[in-house]
Amino acid sequence: MKPGDTRRILYTGLGCLAAALAFVGVVVPGLPSTEFVLAAAYCFARSSPRMESWLLRHRWFGPTLRRFRETGGITRTGKLAALGSMWSAVLVSSAILAAVNRKAALASILMACVGTLTLLFVVRTAPDRA
Protein backbone atom coordinates (compact mmCIF):
# COMPACT_ATOMS: atom_id res chain seq x y z
CA MET A 1 0.00 0.00 0.00
CA LYS A 2 1.15 3.50 -0.81
CA PRO A 3 1.30 6.12 1.96
CA GLY A 4 -1.84 7.98 0.85
CA ASP A 5 -3.96 4.86 0.27
CA THR A 6 -5.22 4.60 3.84
CA ARG A 7 -6.38 8.22 3.82
CA ARG A 8 -8.02 7.80 0.39
CA ILE A 9 -9.85 4.65 1.53
CA LEU A 10 -11.03 6.39 4.72
CA TYR A 11 -12.33 9.42 2.82
CA THR A 12 -14.04 7.21 0.22
CA GLY A 13 -15.73 5.17 2.95
CA LEU A 14 -16.88 8.27 4.81
CA GLY A 15 -18.11 9.79 1.55
CA CYS A 16 -20.13 6.67 0.73
CA LEU A 17 -21.62 6.66 4.24
CA ALA A 18 -22.53 10.35 3.98
CA ALA A 19 -24.06 9.84 0.51
CA ALA A 20 -26.12 6.90 1.80
CA LEU A 21 -27.38 9.02 4.71
CA ALA A 22 -28.26 11.80 2.25
CA PHE A 23 -30.41 9.37 0.26
CA VAL A 24 -32.13 8.23 3.46
CA GLY A 25 -32.63 11.89 4.41
CA VAL A 26 -34.63 12.46 1.23
CA VAL A 27 -37.37 10.09 2.40
CA VAL A 28 -37.12 10.25 6.21
CA PRO A 29 -38.66 13.37 7.71
CA GLY A 30 -36.35 15.22 10.06
CA LEU A 31 -33.15 13.63 8.73
CA PRO A 32 -31.26 16.24 6.74
CA SER A 33 -29.84 15.49 3.33
CA THR A 34 -27.98 18.69 2.42
CA GLU A 35 -25.42 18.38 5.20
CA PHE A 36 -24.67 14.79 4.24
CA VAL A 37 -24.34 15.70 0.55
CA LEU A 38 -21.84 18.43 1.47
CA ALA A 39 -19.90 16.00 3.66
CA ALA A 40 -19.89 13.41 0.87
CA ALA A 41 -18.64 15.98 -1.64
CA TYR A 42 -15.88 17.04 0.77
CA CYS A 43 -14.75 13.44 1.24
CA PHE A 44 -14.97 12.53 -2.45
CA ALA A 45 -13.00 15.65 -3.44
CA ARG A 46 -10.14 14.24 -1.33
CA SER A 47 -10.42 10.63 -2.43
CA SER A 48 -12.34 9.86 -5.61
CA PRO A 49 -12.74 12.28 -8.53
CA ARG A 50 -15.11 9.76 -10.16
CA MET A 51 -17.46 9.72 -7.14
CA GLU A 52 -17.24 13.50 -6.79
CA SER A 53 -18.20 13.91 -10.45
CA TRP A 54 -21.11 11.48 -10.00
CA LEU A 55 -22.38 13.48 -7.03
CA LEU A 56 -22.10 16.79 -8.91
CA ARG A 57 -24.06 15.33 -11.86
CA HIS A 58 -26.71 13.63 -9.69
CA ARG A 59 -30.21 14.86 -10.55
CA TRP A 60 -31.31 15.28 -6.90
CA PHE A 61 -28.14 16.49 -5.22
CA GLY A 62 -26.13 18.02 -8.05
CA PRO A 63 -27.95 21.35 -8.41
CA THR A 64 -27.84 22.13 -4.67
CA LEU A 65 -24.21 21.08 -4.43
CA ARG A 66 -23.17 23.12 -7.46
CA ARG A 67 -25.07 26.17 -6.14
CA PHE A 68 -23.36 25.81 -2.76
CA ARG A 69 -19.97 25.63 -4.46
CA GLU A 70 -20.71 28.71 -6.57
CA THR A 71 -22.13 30.89 -3.79
CA GLY A 72 -20.64 29.40 -0.63
CA GLY A 73 -24.01 29.44 1.10
CA ILE A 74 -27.65 28.45 1.23
CA THR A 75 -30.47 30.59 -0.14
CA ARG A 76 -32.92 32.29 2.22
CA THR A 77 -35.65 30.02 0.85
CA GLY A 78 -33.48 26.98 1.55
CA LYS A 79 -32.79 28.14 5.08
CA LEU A 80 -36.49 28.67 5.75
CA ALA A 81 -37.31 25.23 4.37
CA ALA A 82 -34.54 23.65 6.46
CA LEU A 83 -35.68 25.42 9.62
CA GLY A 84 -39.33 24.58 9.02
CA SER A 85 -38.71 20.89 8.42
CA MET A 86 -36.21 20.63 11.27
CA TRP A 87 -38.47 22.27 13.82
CA SER A 88 -41.54 20.31 12.68
CA ALA A 89 -39.68 17.04 13.17
CA VAL A 90 -38.06 18.15 16.44
CA LEU A 91 -41.32 19.30 18.00
CA VAL A 92 -43.22 16.15 17.04
CA SER A 93 -40.44 13.83 18.17
CA SER A 94 -39.86 15.80 21.38
CA ALA A 95 -43.56 15.65 22.23
CA ILE A 96 -43.49 11.88 21.83
CA LEU A 97 -40.15 11.58 23.63
CA ALA A 98 -41.34 13.70 26.56
CA ALA A 99 -43.72 10.92 27.56
CA VAL A 100 -40.73 8.63 28.04
CA ASN A 101 -37.89 10.92 29.06
CA ARG A 102 -38.27 14.67 29.56
CA LYS A 103 -34.50 15.25 29.69
CA ALA A 104 -34.02 13.62 26.32
CA ALA A 105 -36.85 15.74 24.87
CA LEU A 106 -35.22 18.87 26.26
CA ALA A 107 -31.83 17.80 24.87
CA SER A 108 -33.44 17.37 21.43
CA ILE A 109 -34.88 20.89 21.59
CA LEU A 110 -31.55 22.34 22.74
CA MET A 111 -29.73 20.65 19.85
CA ALA A 112 -32.29 22.11 17.45
CA CYS A 113 -31.58 25.55 18.93
CA VAL A 114 -27.87 25.06 18.25
CA GLY A 115 -28.69 23.97 14.70
CA THR A 116 -30.90 27.00 14.21
CA LEU A 117 -28.24 29.41 15.46
CA THR A 118 -25.65 27.72 13.24
CA LEU A 119 -27.87 27.97 10.18
CA LEU A 120 -28.74 31.60 10.87
CA PHE A 121 -25.36 32.97 11.92
CA VAL A 122 -22.65 30.63 10.59
CA VAL A 123 -23.92 29.43 7.21
CA ARG A 124 -23.74 32.20 4.61
CA THR A 125 -27.02 33.28 2.99
CA ALA A 126 -26.71 33.11 -0.77
CA PRO A 127 -28.95 35.18 -3.05
CA ASP A 128 -32.08 33.48 -4.37
CA ARG A 129 -31.97 32.94 -8.11
CA ALA A 130 -34.60 34.65 -10.19
Automatic annotation (TrEMBL):
Pfam families named among the record's database cross-references: DUF454
Q: Does the keyword Nucleotide-binding apply?
A: no
Task: Return the GO cellular component terms, semicolon-separated.
Answer: plasma membrane
Give the UniProt keywords, A-Z: Membrane, Transmembrane, Transmembrane helix
Extract the signal peptide range: none
**Entry keyword annotation includes Transmembrane helix:** yes
Q: Where are the transmembrane segments?
A: 9-30, 77-98, 104-123
Write down the PANTHER family for this protein, in alphabetical order.
Answer: INNER MEMBRANE PROTEIN YBAN
Name by which UniProt lists this protein:
YbaN family protein
